[in-house]
Automatic annotation (TrEMBL), chain A:
This is D-xylose ABC transporter ATP-binding protein. GO terms for molecular function: ATP binding; ATP hydrolysis activity. CDD domains: ABC_Carb_Monos_I, ABC_Carb_Monos_II. The keyword Translocase applies. Keywords: ATP-binding, Cell membrane, Membrane, Nucleotide-binding, Repeat, Sugar transport, Translocase, Transport. It is a peripheral membrane protein. The lineage of its organism: Bacteria, Pseudomonadati, Pseudomonadota, Alphaproteobacteria, Hyphomicrobiales. It comes from Kumtagia ephedrae. It is found in: Cell membrane. It holds the Pfam family ABC_tran. Belongs to the ABC transporter superfamily. Gene3D superfamilies: P-loop containing nucleotide triphosphate hydrolases.
Length: 507, 356
């Protein structure tokens, strides 16, 4: 197989508005779910097409199909007239490169080996390290000239790993580059750099598919927007014809209003953290959360918010200080003790930290409730089913049945399953760590409303979020963290984007 | 890249009525998953009864089942360990150690047989505990940790027995082997009872649920309040105990403290468990499938004997059957899923998707 070392610089005129990838009448169903229903989609060279839709709208299925992982039940996909067979290798061969949400690199291999993965150049049948380095450098020069081709990929930051994947796509001479939520784990300067790279690639005539939940990003980078809803195509429009509200209306099919918390009676102290310290992570943290109170916790990534949650919930040990719930001290480093004391945690990464993907929705909902479902040593499956069904209805979890595998649900619905687990247990304190991360607009407002309802019912809420609008809309009080300390405790009146950011960065 | 590959039964929409109700009570679904394996076994039996006049006799079938009991009991424990994504290579050595202790303590030390049996079982539990601690506290990979205890336990058994079988066995073993319950050999009843208890523990207790969760996602299990290290240690202890019980069965069957028996049995056990649909990655599988896996391997062994396959070829034949069974199982799952998908499309096409 011949590998072009350099991306062919297409003539700009020829690159304009030429359809590279065409998908027609795509239909795909999984047991119990019609994921895509007769969807048309196309990508043009030299353009960024944003693919939008709520979780469960069918974006991921469409992308996996373009990447060759799934075959459509009906419909065809072709790239420059060459049909795509349902096989990732075929997708690569005809020029589709996909950058998945989390980087797919071999951590122990060097950057150069990863760029040339599976296509390592040979000389007289032997691997040629020199040529490999040469080609890797050529690809890196376009997207990440600062990277050393011999560094093991596992040592790179997520942002750099992503650039390595883009370099791989370039070295493969791809015509279509699919980026599935590429900015999720990037900082603002890294996002700027990525978008610079995307602009370059666009100018070189690549067709780019960009999936994101961040509309700001979409308006920054996209030329066209394709919106899916419930597996159907809502429409494809040039970005110039759209604004923020129009896109949201297309995505959810209705107006979404911002949910703002109202005032409610605040009760006794539920969580009391005093002088909590952990070497190099947290120092001298003290605060309280009262019944019915929503305390927002803001700060930059790395300020120690998730680490604080991990200490309170007993995931990580701490060196000094104490955590009490309703006056009772909780044993450190023991999640079970924390749960029994009345704490619930919705962790940041639901797939890694909360859900057992092989198990059913029902089993995942009741995973922290088994002690209450057991009598005479046996689990009561009838009661388990009752509880699961009640939570599925209460949270409007979209699932074919309670026995469906949780991994087949969309992100928003998976997050609801995690919430359902804690609602079934009724904790005194619920810690939510980035509860709406990677969740679409509709599900976001549902989760916000749920948080308010729980507070009204007297639950103490500690809400960790990087999204300032969310913090500002929901919090009665905002704690700002910086470098492992609480740098400010702001009342609702004091809390604005400006005050929070200033305490997060310099307080 | 992990793409979801759920099996058809768990994704199937619930049907109202009798079947759905039954599913709640017992793990009917899990049994259905083993249908393919069952079909292979029945087909194999049909072919064998045609090829060999001896095969379909009560005596032969009883013989097959009796020799399968030992592997089955070990496999019960192994299933627990594999469900938490572990592996236990020490089982065959534990079995041998238990066997020589149960006879030797009576012969050499003059202990009462009941006490010797108890000591043998305790030995199994202790080795399981050591395995569990090595894996959870010392963080040694299960493969290596149990490889070490496998060698150690086998060594101890040789040292204690002097490398030879110990005979005669106490009366209680002879009685066990000869016992019949409603005409069925007692060891078979015992094995089925153990498997049934194990399945109830897996599907209907907090511990069983914790086993699946720990195997499926240890971090999520811990954050849900499950003491995952304890769960892992417990599975290794169950495996040790089951291997020790199997040691008593082998003592009864061979009428000796069998110091040299069960060479390489750990691999046969792991093969049976995996053929039975228990995922080596943890979190998936059940006792019903495991029993079918054991039965299939037992039948192959029997067929090889009855058909006079040259002795050196029998392991080749067994290996081929293992590979074929595994391939067929994968094929069956894919086929069923494809069929299911078609049904769903038909159902969806007949009614328009509702807008929420």
């Amino acid at each position: 197989m011949s590998v072009a070392e350099v991306l062919r610089p297409d003539e700009p005129a020829a690159a304009e508005c030429r359809q590279v990838l065409v998908a027609q009448g795509i239909t795909k169903s999984f047991p119990g779910v019609l994921a895509l229903d007769n969807v048309d989609f196309d990508v043009r060279s030299g353009e960024v097409t944003a693919l939008l839709g709520e979780n469960g709208a069918g974006k991921s299925t469409l992308i996996k199909m373009i990447a060759g992982f799934y075959s459509p039940d009906r419909g065809d996909i072709s790239v420059d007239g060459v049909p795509l067979h349902a096989d990732p290798a075929s997708a690569h061969r005809i020029g589709v490169a996909t950058i998945h949400q989390d980087a797919h690199l071999v951590p122990a291999m060097s950057v150069a080996e990863n760029i040339m993965l599976g296509r390592w150049p040979t000389r007289y049948g032997w691997l040629s390290v020199g040529r490999q380095r040469q080609r890797a450098l050529a690809a890196l020069a376009k997207v990440a000239p600062h990277l050393n081709p011999s560094t093991p990929a596992g040592r790179l930051s997520p942002a750099d790993q992503q650039l390595v994947e883009i370099a791989r796509a370039i070295s493969e001479d791809s015509k279509v580059l699919v980026m599935d939520e590429p900015t999720t784990s990037l900082s603002p300067p890294e996002i700027d750099r990525l978008f610079g790279v995307v602009d370059d690639l666009k100018a070189k005539g690549l067709g780019i598919v960009f999936v994101s939940h961040w509309l700001e990003e979409v308006f920054r980078i996209a030329d066209r927007v394709t919106v899916l809803r419930d597996g159907r195509l809502v429409g494809t429009r040039p970005i110039a014809e759209l604004d923020h509200d129009k896109v949201i209306r297309m995505m959810v099919g209705r107006e979404v209003r911002d949910t703002v918390a109202d005032t409610r009676p605040i009760g006794d102290v539920v969580l009391s953290v005093s002088n909590l310290s952990r070497a190099n992570v947290l120092s001298d943290i003290s605060f309280e959360v009262r019944a019915g109170e929503i305390v927002g916790m803001s700060g930059l990534v790395g300020a120690g918010r998730s680490e604080l949650a991990a200490c309170i919930f007993g995931i990580d040990p701490y060196d000094g200080g104490s955590v009490t719930i309703a006056g009772e001290a909780i044993a450190p480093n023991d999640p079970k003790a924390a749960i029994e004391a009345g704490i619930g945690l919705v962790p940041e990464d639901r797939r890694k930290q909360a859900l057992v993907s092989l198990l059913s929705v029902r089993t995942n909902v009741t995973l922290s409730l088994l002690d209450r479902l057991t009598s005479w040593g046996l689990l009561s499956t009838t009661r388990e089913e009752e509880i699961a069904e009640r939570q599925i209805r209460a949270l409007a979890i979209k699932t074919p049945s309670s026995k469906t595998r949780v991994s087949t649900l969309s992100g928003g619905n998976q997050q609801k399953v995690v919430l359902a687990r804690w609602l079934a247990r009724r904790p005194k304190l619920l810690i939510l760590d980035e509860p709406t991360k990677g969740i679409d607009v509709g599900a976001k407002s549902e989760i916000s409303e749920l948080v308010i309802r729980l507070a009204r019912e007297g639950m103490a809420i500690l809400l960790i979020s990087s999204e300032l609008p969310e913090i500002l809309a929901l919090s009665d009080r905002v704690l700002v963290m910086r470098s492992g300390r609480i740098s400010a405790s702001l009342s609702r009146e004091q809390a604005t984007s400006e005050t929070i950011m200033s305490y997060a960065t310099t307080g | 890249m992990t793409l979801e590959n759920p099996t058809m039964t768990q994704r199937a929409p619930t049907q109202p009525g009798g079947l759905a109700a039954l599913r709640g009570k017992i793990s009917f679904i899990d049994l259905m998953q083993s249908a393919g394996l069952m079909a292979v076994i029945l087909l194999g039996c049909a072919v064998m009864s045609f090829l060999s006049p001896v095969f379909a006799t009560v005596r032969n079938i009883e013989n097959v089942l009796q020799s399968a009991t030992i592997i089955a009991v070990v496999a019960i424990g192994q299933t627990f360990v594999i469900l938490v994504a572990g592996i236990d290579l020490s089982v065959a050595s534990v079995l041998v150690l238990s066997s020589v202790l149960s006879v030797g303590l009576v012969q050499f030390q003059g202990w009462p047989p009941e006490l010797a049996i108890l000591a043998a079982l305790v030995a199994g539990l202790v080795i399981g505990l050591v395995n569990g601690l090595a894996v959870t506290k010392l963080k040694i990979p299960a493969l290596i940790a149990t490889l070490a205890t496998m060698t150690i336990a086998r060594g101890l058994a040789y040292i204690y027995s002097g490398g030879t079988n110990i005979a005669p066995v106490p009366r209680i073993f002879v009685d066990l082997q000869a016992s019949r319950i409603f005409g069925v050999p007692g060891v078979i009843v015992l094995t089925l009872a153990l498997a049934l208890i194990a399945q109830i523990v897996l599907s209907r207790t907090q511990f069983g649920r914790s086993v699946y969760a720990t195997g499926g996602n240890p971090l999520a299990a811990r954050l849900a309040g499950i003491k995952t290290e304890r769960v892992i240690i417990a599975t290794f202890m169950i495996s040790g105990l089951m291997a020790a019980i199997a040691g008593l069965l082998i003592t009864a069957r061979f009428e000796a403290g069998a110091a040299t028996a069960a060479q390489g049995m750990e691999l046969a056990v792991i093969a049976a468990v995996v053929i039975g649909g228990v995922s080596l990655f943890g979190g998936e599988g059940n006792m019903g499938g495991m029993l079918l896996g054991v039965l299939l391997l037992g039948l192959v062994q029997n067929a090889v004997n009855l058909l006079n396959v040259p002795p050196n070829w029998d392991s080749v034949v067994s290996g081929l059957v293992i590979a074929a069974a595994a391939a067929l199982d994968v094929y069956r799952r894919n086929y069923l899923e494809a069929g299911m998908r078609k049904k769903v499309i038909a159902a969806k096409a007949s009614k328009p998707a509702k807008q929420p």
